[in-house]
Amino acid sequence: MLEAQSIITILFVSLGIIFMLVGSIGILRLPDFYSRSHAVSKSDTLGVVFVIVGLIIYEGFTLSSGKLFLIVLFIALSNPIGTHALARAALKKGLKPLLHDDKKGGETS
Amino acid sequence: MENFFLYSAVVLTIIIAVPLIRVVKGPTLFDRLLATNAIATKTIVLVCLIGFLFGRIDMFIDITLAYAILGFIGVLAIAKYLSSPKVRRNA
């Protein structure tokens, strides 16, 4: 089995999983909905891109890796849009962002 | 290489369990939606990894593609429904 290909795959997949771990921790610790949406959309998308690019490298040059590339493209486009739609609906529904002066403003209103 | 995919799939399952805490604890409705969206994105990768584990890669990639599209449309539908005046519950 080609050694370099496996090492690169292990590197990419573990890097992607680390980014997803960071995204999950960000969801728990960040104080406000709008800051949490940063964690979800950005680090998750990057984690998915890294893992699937690692799988593409492991797969080589076949039809499946073409489809995997389509998945990467779709997720890189759709995940931020989904989170943006949620944040926009939240703002329209009246969820105030947590500004620096009022400590717990974002939660209750 | 096979057990590396197995271990990463197990770690990914643990990472998927973390947003569940936010789904339960989330003060506002939108936190719950956000955590669910995060779980959906992570599930996409988990299904891909399981596809590589089972060896039938092309079947699982189609499942992943369909799931990604449905997850995206679901989030948009919920966001559009919540921003419409019909919903009276405040965030």
What does this structure look like?
The complex is a heterodimer of chains A (109) and B (91). Chain A has one domain. Chain A is an all-alpha fold. Chain A is elongated. Chain A contains four helices and no strands. The model of chain A has no long low-confidence stretch (mean pLDDT 86). Chain B starts with a helix and ends in a 9-residue tail after the last helix. Chain B is mostly helical. Chain B is built from three helices and no strands. The model of chain B has no long low-confidence stretch (mean pLDDT 89). In chain B, helix 1 (2-25) runs antiparallel to helix 2 (29-54) and helix 2 (29-54) packs antiparallel against helix 3 (57-82). Helices cover 84% and strands 0% of the residues of chain B. At the A-B interface, helix 1, helix 2 and helix 3 of A face helix 1, helix 2 and helix 3 of B.
Overall mean pLDDT score of chain B? Answer: 89
Distance between the termini of chain A: 58 Å
Extract low-pLDDT stretches of chain A.
none
Distance between the termini of chain B: 46 Å
Total individual domains of chain A: 1
Helical residue percent band of chain B: over 70%
- Poorly predicted regions of chain B: none
Total of DSSP H or I helical runs spanning 4+ residues of chain B: 3
- Average pLDDT over all residues of chain A: 86
Element-by-element helix/strand order of chain A? HHHH
Beta-strand fraction estimate of chain A: under 5%
Principal-axis shape of chain A: elongated
Number of strands of chain B: 0
Biggest interface: A-B, 52 and 47 residues
Largest sheet of chain A: none
The class by helix and strand makeup of chain B works out as mainly alpha
Counting H and I runs of at least 4 residues, what is the number of helices of chain A? 4
> What is the general shape of chain B?
elongated
